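Per-record layout

source: Plebeiibacterium marinum
name: Outer membrane protein beta-barrel domain-containing protein
length: 179
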Amino acid sequence: MRKLFIVLGVLLALGVNGYSQSLYPGEQTAGVGLGVPSAMNTTKKNPAISVSGFYEYGFTEKLGIGHIGGGAIVSLAGGNDYRHFLIGPRAAYHFDMTDITGDKAWDVVDVYAGIMSGARFRHEEYYDPFLDRTIDYNDTDLITDIFAGIRYSFADNIGVYAEAGYGVSYLTVGLSFRF
């Protein structure tokens, strides 16, 4: 995990010549990231990491719609097995920070916020010392998420992003790709 943050920091530092980050109708963005699972996707005995991916289609200049494809959370700590998989549609509003601030430096940064709603499929298998037996638990439920993020392009079609929310993870960092 430390190496990931170092690589992302170097990429951000080297990205002096950024690329336009505006959202265009028809533009597609996908990303993959690692994060700290939210409380609804973890337990005290579950020191897990979340792996999430997303896809977004630029519907208008400021509205992107897509889905979160994944949000898998896996932990095999101490012989315990926790797997959560989330999937659902999401919508994000992209702020035009150049217009808001009047500063062209924001051209390479995409600031956005949005909502997500979907399903969570959960499997947990762990030993309960009080019951002296292994618990095998499966569940499906509906989830919602409110999130905010920032994306920085250091090349024409690749960048880094950080996103905060509570559905999949409290904080996710990763790579994003435009096509």
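summary: The chain is about 10% helix and 60% strand. Helices lie at 2-14, 97-101.
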